[in-house]
């Protein structure tokens, strides 16, 4: 069977799911540049893990942002999985970046590059600008090209006073309407974790902890939020079967898997909570609002903890990339 991608014609034994992926790819080929490695993997049903880029452009300082992005991609490749970092570069949607593109994106700095959630995509594309895609933005694009597993550090959530300010991340709504499995360490405790989990339930998002010794959903910097997770998955195969069942049912909603931070990177609970209290109140005092809130608080926490929180952040992202790769492999084995 022959599948067309722009000008290229690739011969491949295409099964049901990958032919859907290729139809999707050609539908959007006028807007989206899919890296050849990603394109070939999707077409031959080999595992791919999507990665977001707001973490590079707004979530981490230089040079750790680039170093981490490259290391995370290498971890994924070491599992025989293709990494697909998603971003907007000069008005083109990119699925899979080469080293040069990653380098450029990481060196732009937040003033030069947009933080792109659903609402920002059309504007940034129309103006031929560049952007780091959030969990919401990345999920939309990954789904367009048929990627099912996505690894990141943490997702957005309901802010601590979100029931008053209405500051609720678009990530949560997107997870409710996009069939993607996001592997993260949950929601930072700069946010309101119990309310975020309630909201995810309302949106119909399947939430599960992964190999949690308490059965609790993780709290990003620490292994437990004290809130019981609806499910606790033990193996990549269990996760893959769950993804497949939701896809087969065509639920069109997402799955959030919360992987506790590895013990050696976990932060001291008191130190991190004090830093967060300080950062959240500093944001309030300075009148930081909208999409600036999350990056501001992240930076402030990192400063107060003298970079310790950044170390935790990097440690957990790498571990999540590893777990997501294992899940993507298990999923691709199920499809064969
Ligand atoms: N949490 C982190 N690091 C990050 C983000 C969240 O620990 O870099 C980024 C992600 O891209 C996430 C976004 O999708 O922030 C959420 O932003 P907001 O709260 O404005 O929706
Ligand atoms: Mn917000």
What can you tell me about this protein's structure?
It contains 14 helices and 13 strands. By secondary structure, it is an alpha/beta fold. The strands form two sheets. Strands 3, 4, 5, 6, 7, 8, 9, 10, 11, 12 and 13 form an eleven-stranded mixed sheet that branches. It is globular and about 50 Å long. It binds pseudouridine-5'-monophosphate and manganese (II) ion (MN). This is Pseudouridine-5'-phosphate glycosidase. Keywords: Glycosidase, Hydrolase, Lyase, Manganese, Metal-binding. GO terms for molecular function: hydrolase activity, acting on glycosyl bonds; metal ion binding; pseudouridylate synthase activity. It comes from Hermetia illucens (Black soldier fly).
Q: What is the global morphology?
A: globular
Average residue pLDDT: 92
Percentage of β-strand residues? 15-25%
The tally of strands reads 13
Distance from N terminus to C terminus (CA atoms, Å) equals: 17 Å
Helix content: 40-55%
Structural class call reads alpha/beta
Note the run of SSEs as H and E. Answer: EEHEHEHHEEHEHEHEHHEHEEHEHHH
Helical segment count: 14
User: What is the CA-based Rg, rounded?
Assistant: 19 Å
* Low-pLDDT windows of residues: 1-14
Which sheet architecture does the biggest sheet show? 11 strands, mixed
